[in-house]
Amino acid sequence: MDDAISLILHGCKLAEDLELNLENLASQPETLSKSCEEIIRVFASAKERLGFHQLSTTLYPHPMLFREPQDLQQQQNIDPILQEWLGSSCTSAMETLLHQTQGVMAEKSALGLIESKVGGGIQMGSGSDLFIESSSRSDVQAMDPSDSGRGSSSSSKRPRKRNDDAEKRTVRVPAQQFGNTEIPPDDGFTWRKYGQKEILGSRFPRAYYRCTHQNLYHCPAKKQVQRLDDDPFQFEVVYRGEHTCHMSDTAPSFPRPAPGIAQEMAQAMIGQPPPSAATSLGRWVDFSLGPGGSAGSSSSSMAAGSSGGAAGPSTVGRYGKEADYPITDMADAMFNSGSSSTNSMELIFPGDQPSDKNN
DNA sequence: TTGATTTGACCGGG
DNA sequence: CCCGGTCAAATCAA
């Protein structure tokens, strides 16, 4: 056990070192790749020494295990548990990472885990079926702080500044296969629903969410969730704005990517922030002990009931208020999507040609 | 009591 | 003027 701990610490140290040298190494994809592999190796062997291998593969068979043979082939060099972590963490954490590194990544397309795709996209090669399609996206805009002016206005008029300037990312996620399929998969953040509208030409209403901590931390993040007309088992989720709440040490929401990219990498790769991040390991352990992420862990009470119907409840809602669990429903849903039309979740950035018809 | 959801009204861009 | 996004009062739920 002790050497497992020291291995973990070693891995964290490596991640830290990588972070420190990241600027210098940005132009050396090979070195970066090797560093990442080394970090993965260290964490993997740490995990092996913890002796949980059999336990979790037998007790908690992850749907990932039933995926396409070529996927498994691609992942054969990675420990199954690590794969699971990868799968469960490459959602929002990965997204956050991508936002911050995309400028570099698009050009260097270097890291071992993230390989450039013909056509300019980026694909998570290992541990996930996360596809990010970004054919012509120029750069990542800074977060739009101007949005915060909305609430502070004391005028009696209701200033409704639209968030059009904010970066917009479209994600397609399969509905959960088990449990309440009405619920859009959780993405790890806490959202508060603030509206729902029937959209012209769409069978299903669109639900509007903003970050629960919008007021407290002026977090501008928002998302829209809508069921696809042609595939009701899929949701199209449009994210606008960046979460700033997790940048605060006191902000409770997860994921809480630390300012350092290495920490985010570690998070994206193994699903845990290294101890150097202020987040404690405990909350993660608590979560990992509960394998029930998928079947409505974030489910709220509604299923039928609401007048609007489909797009439904908060992804965390009252039950998950300031949740400490980085629920992996989205990842689970991806893996669970066997009956759905696709196993992949795609991010579509502005300038792409999404198959979207509503926006 | 507090915080989330519902839902009709409001607002602004196209 | 239409439609999508947002507001906020009413309501619900823990």
In short:
This protein has helices at 2-20, 22-25, 29-50, 53-59, 69-74, 80-89, 92-108, 149-152, 214-217, 261-270, 281-289, 329-335; strands spanning 114-116, 122-124, 130-133, 168-174, 191-197, 206-211, 222-227, 234-240, 345-348. It is α+β, with helices and mostly antiparallel strands. It has a 9-stranded mixed beta sheet with strand order 1-2-3-9-4-8-7-6-5, covered by helices on one side.
Search tags:
WRKY_dom_sf; 9 strands; DNA-binding; alpha+beta; nucleus; 359 residues; transcription; single chain
Can you describe what's shown?
The chain is of the alpha+beta class and 359 residues long. Among the domains are: 1-53 and 86-98, no CATH class; 168-240, N-terminal domain of TfIIb, CATH 2.20.25.80. It has helices at 2-20, 22-25, 29-50, 53-59, 69-74, 80-89, 92-108, 149-152, 214-217, 261-270, 281-289, 329-335, and strands at 114-116, 122-124, 130-133, 168-174, 191-197, 206-211, 222-227, 234-240, 345-348. A 9-stranded mixed beta sheet has the order 1-2-3-9-4-8-7-6-5, covered by helices on one side. It binds a DNA duplex (14 and 14 nucleotides) through β5 and β6.
